[in-house]
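Title: Prediction job returns without error message
Component: structure pipeline
Severity: low
Priority: P3
Assignee: unassigned

Description:
Job completed but the reporter wants confirmation the result is attached to the right record. Sequence as submitted:
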Amino acid sequence: MDQAAVVPALLTTIGTLFVVELTDKDALFLLALATRARASLVFAAGSIAFTITTAIIVLVGSVLITLVPVVAVKVAGGAIMLAYAAWEFLRFSARERGTDERERRLLEKPSRGAWSIFFPALVSLIVLDLAGDATELVTIVLLARFEDAVVVFSGTVVGLVGAVAVETLLGNRLGRLLSPRRIKYLSVVVFAIIGTTVIVTSLAGY
């Protein structure tokens, strides 16, 4: 990547992932967890989990764009985002009403110390993020757009960690604003905008 394009690409990646993470399904889990454990503990679990999953996603994405034409990856990614936005608009799943069963059991489990929360939270976040997550798709699309694994990895990690910091530090106050229903509609708007932008700029040759 041209050195002059590094900073804009990095800022775009950071901002996009920050917004997407705040409207993603694991935001509710982090917000709920922040009400039961120290903010520093939740922040550490979220930061480590997202760094691990980002490394995996960028590695997989890097292989993908060597096998599939970049424009095809971008257009397909944009189309999937639009389809996701439409699907989320039409349904209100059990997951959107709260955290899933595994996360619910973790939140209800009596706390016996910091490590009894940290490790289960770390594993849950990794599994949740890799089991079909909005940030995965956005990361791969940005990787196809900028074709620089280091920039996308760095920007994604910074954006996600920044979102985790906001979610854990604000805790209950942010939780009152980001209800499951509001997260659903925010997610629809965010994905519709990103998906449309990706398709238009890809077809225009940007």
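Comment from assignee: result matches the submitted record. Residues 93-99 have pLDDT under 50 and may be disordered.
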